[in-house]
Specification:
205 residues; alpha/beta; five-stranded parallel sheet; two-stranded antiparallel sheet; 11 helices; 14% strand; elongated
Length: 205
């Protein structure tokens, strides 16, 4: 069977283009707040789904901060709190290099589809300028939906008039890829860069 003619390349952000570890935030805040336990902080945020609400645009960064401040009586100010919360990323260099080359050659339309929030995304734009090169973005907090919800994929196809069958979606989370595949997107599971390149080069031939 012939490969589909790929016209659109859709990148996930976290742990695909940019690596992250939220543990840096939990540990970082616990290190400067006397008596704060990093695991309890993480449990509170997860139990209250504050991270999910933030990424869906249901609460603001300030409301997120106030909830943590109220629960743990933290002394850290808002600006320092948001910096600690956001300074959890580092570049996936080979993937960024590929992104830049794809944008330069203009053969494909490039898109970003990400579960993110305003604080994280603004930090990424300031610190990883290559992400600014992607002009077509669908961000969870702007559309009030998270992968793997159907709504976020449908928003992308409608807004940018994308045909899933001539598009490839690259993500590190299998559940998100399965949701995209149900809508007829071609998908690649990003695990290692070597494995990704093998699948990617085969698909776009």
């Amino acid at each position: 069977m012939e490969n589909p003619k790929i016209k659109n390349i859709i990148f996930d952000l976290g742990n695909t283009l940019i690596f992250f570890d939220h543990g840096y935030f939990y540990d970082g805040l616990a290190n400067i707040e006397k008596g704060l336990n990093a695991n309890k902080l993480k449990k509170f945020i997860c139990d209250k789904q504050l991270d999910v609400k933030l990424a869906k645009g249901r609460i603001t960064s300030k409301e997120f901060f106030k909830a943590v401040k109220k629960k743990f009586n933290i002394k850290t100010g808002y600006a320092d709190f948001i910096y600690l919360y956001s300074d959890v990323f580092w570049e996936n260099k080979p993937m960024i290099k590929l992104l830049e080359s794809l944008i330069d050659n203009r053969k494909y339309k490039i898109f970003l589809l990400s579960n993110t929030d305003p604080s994280h995304f603004n930090f990424i734009l300031k610190n990883f300028p290559s992400i600014n090169l992607i002009k077509n973005k669908v961000l969870s907090y702007r559309v009030n939906a998270l992968k793997p919800e159907k709504k976020i994929f449908v928003d992308m196809t409608k807004r940018f008039k994308i045909n899933p069958e001539d598009s490839v979606f690259i993500d590190d989370i299998r559940a998100y890829l399965l949701a995209a595949a149900k809508l007829k997107f071609n998908t690649i599971h990003y695990t290692t860069h070597k494995s990704f390149l093998r699948q990617f080069n085969k698909l776009i031939k």
